[in-house]
Structure formats: structure tokens, C-alpha cells
Amino acid sequence: QVYLAESGGGLVRAGESLRLSCGAFEEISRENPMSWYRQAPGKQRELVASIDSGDNVNYADSVKGRFTVSRDVENTLYLQMNDLRSEDPGVYYCKSLHSWGRGTKVTVPS
What we know:
Blueprint: E1 4-7, E2 10-11, E3 18-24, E4 34-39, E5 46-51, E6 57-59, E7 67-71, E8 77-81, E9 90-96, E10 99-100, E11 104-107
Parallel strand pairs: 2-11
Antiparallel strand pairs: 1-3, 3-8, 4-5, 4-9, 5-6, 7-8, 9-10, 9-11
């Protein structure tokens, strides 16, 4: 189990951007895929974006062209979110293998 911590959430207007970060308090193997999930109130947690050991990325259809997932040499995971919309709010979670962070909240008033 790896301790993960997300940051970067906040309240923004529609059309604005946010950059989420996820760091680990111990070394994570670059072989481990990492993902961003989100959970809106009353809804199930859903996959937003993922990146594998070869830096191949995958996105939910709803965020393609607006969100970009990446990670740096220290395996800090990022999610650049542009053109945020009213359907994007929720708590965003970072995942590495079986470990989850506690989430960071994104709010976009409709």
C-alpha cells in the first residue's frame, strides 16, 4: 500500500483550467500504471484518465481533448484540466495499483 496525496483542486468558472497533482510518500515503480478517477455527488466513481509504464494514455470520452494526464521523473502524477465544464465537478482521486489517495475537490458552478 502506497500513501498518495492529491492537490490542486478548487472552485473555478466554466471554461477555466486547473492542474491536479498526485504525489507519493514513498517510491513508486514506473512500471505501475497510474490513474485519475472522479466521483460526483450521487454518482459512482469513474475513470477519467490513466497512464501506463510506457506513458501510453487513455481518457474518458467526456474529457478527451480537454484533459491531459502526465507524470514526471519522480512519478508525480498530473492532470491538466482545461475548459472545465459543469459536468466535471467532483472529488478527483489518484490511484496507483491498489492504492488510492483521499481526493481533491473540483467545483465548477453551473
